[in-house]
Amino acid sequence: MLFGRIWNLNGEKHGGVLKLVRRYLSVSGRTVKDMAEKDGELRVFIVSGEVSGDTIGSRLMASLKKLSPVPIHFSGVGGSMMCKQGLKSLYPIEDISVMGIWELLPHLNKMRVKLKETIEAALLFEPHVVVTVDSKGFSFRLLRQLRARFNQQRLDRPVHFHYVAPSFWAWKGGEARLKGLAEFVDHVLCILPNEEEVCKSNGLAATFVGHPILEDILELNPEKCTSLLEWKIEGNHDNFREENAIPAEATVISVLPGSRLQEVTRMLSIFSNTVELVKESFPQLVTVIHIASNQHVENYITGAVRNWPVPAVLIPGGSQRLKYDALSASRVALCTSGTVAVEMQLARLPCVVAYRAHFLTEWFVRYKAKISYISLPNILLNSALIPEALFGACTHTKLAALLIELIHNDSLREKQIAGAEKFIRHLYPSKIAVNSLISQESRWSFPIHMPSMIAASSILYHVKP
Q1: DSSP string covering 269-307, please?
Q2: What is the pTM of this model?
Q3: Which domains, ranges and CATH numbers included, belong to the chain?
Q4: pLDDT tens-digit profile of 291-334?
């Protein structure tokens, strides 16, 4: 099993600095850095189709700006975070933020239009590098068609990177499909251990850079990074309760309904009914509802909470500090499956994970999935660390029972917290392939183990095929 063995954090002897230098410097051909220096600028076309990818993309852009020896120019598609780093998005990220199989059908025509628009913009931009971040459905269609167009027009084709490997380990036949990606993906930046090894064994160049969520710690609690056992984010719960007039005796539950409008509209009504049941056991119940940086989602939640059964505090997207302050003030969390389950581990906040989809999508997942869990902590540890209520089992009565038990049962919460420490160790890039390169540059203020810094170095020193 892919994640069956625990990653050795104390490290192997990876050959030392000389091996690293041989691997990344003593090569023939032109690196991306060489091409950029020749042209006097680095042109990066970068595309993300969802909120979590917007954060990953923005951090990669910041790292590239730090590392690039020449001025850097960006074009592509992204959200508010990427725009803060200098991207003028071709269109709002919400236009392509669609997940699921059957859920995609009503949006197919719009997606085709946006795909064509993106391809034409990339051709005009003439990038040295194209980077797609997650959103594999849109990303792989873009990279495949871009490669074909550049070849057809006999243009100097850019190097293609995909950041966040597809979850091949979750699906039947997933690993076999990796072989086909090498036709239009030059390099995959992996965020989970062992993905690099499997990609390479299937002819796909890859680098394990570490999970992007680690950068939340480096930004918010850098003093906690001296030991992996201390890698967690401690928010200011007292200030949060005081600023939001939450009584000391109130029970606070964080609610995280998702980042895409489709899933939020489906999950928020279930969560509302869940909270209605939970308040029978906890009369002084307050919910903190976390809103993703998606304008459609924000508008929907703002309207929906008018009928919310208990007092609610809304946390807008875009503020990591405020988010973790709210999590620290919470007793437990109720989450729609996704990256938020990993954030709960960093905050050491016990949680319950839920998910519903279109019934045909649910049927497809049951038929094709080869793993027993949906939450990444459960998958990596191969254990039901986090209670999950999925598909038909995702009812308000089931969720309420799980939350009430988690709130009352200290041993269950302690078990999740202990498991979180073990889980975080799996996300740390103990094999930092470009460590020697980064450490030579004293002007770089980023910690050398930041995933985005490793990803940026992998891009700059990639040899063009």
Answers
A1: HHHHHHHHHHTTT-SSEEEEEE--S-HHHHHHHHHHGGG
A2: 0.83
A3: 16-210+429-460 (3.40.50), 223-426 (3.40.50.2000)
A4: 988 888 999 999 999 999 999 999 998 788 999 999 999 999 99
